[in-house]
Amino acid sequence: MRPKLWHHILTGISGVFLLGMTVYTVIRYGSLPEKIPTHFGAAGVADGFGHKSTLVMLIFLAWMLFGVLTVVAFFPDAWNVPKRNARTLAAAADMIAVMKLVTVLMFCWMILCSVQSWNLGSWFLPVTMVGMFAPLVHLILASVRK
User: What is the DSSP letter of 30?
Assistant: First the structure.
């Protein structure tokens, strides 16, 4: 099963966002204060602060997750998917493509908020949860349909 065209498009969009955020952070890094928000509570308000070098780890983690999800998407034979049939594998590929985009957007927003010293916003957690669990629900529904 080859990835669909829109999976490549979502991967491209994810990569562009991540690259743009990385370049933006590198450009702004010298002018950042030494202490920036590094942790946000469930309400999206910064409740932990740390050295600006923590952005390097956050960017590294975002790129690592992007890379792992991209590699996983291109090797569907290695997936442990129940009821291995074309429809279930296609739904799993859809799930990975959407979750990769949501993950990258989530990390980009967290990095931007840390760089700008903004709060995440009260909408961040619910939107992220829906973005992560909706593809999973889609996969489950697609695998139990006959």
Answer: G
- Which spans in the chain are helix H? 5-28, 54-73, 86-116, 124-144
d(CA 118, CA 102): 20
User: What pTM value is reported for the model?
Assistant: 0.88
Give the tokens for residue 136: 């999973």
Q: Looking up tokens 């006959």, which residue turns up?
A: 146
81: exposed, middle or buried (Cβ count in 10 Å: 0-12, 13-18, 19+): middle
The tens digit of pLDDT for each residue in 71-122 reads 888 777 677 766 677 777 777 888 888 999 999 999 999 999 999 999 999 9
- Say how far apart CA 112 and CA 18 lie, in whole Å: 11
According to DSSP, the residues that pair with 45 across neighbouring strands are none
Return the structure tokens found at 35.
């202490």
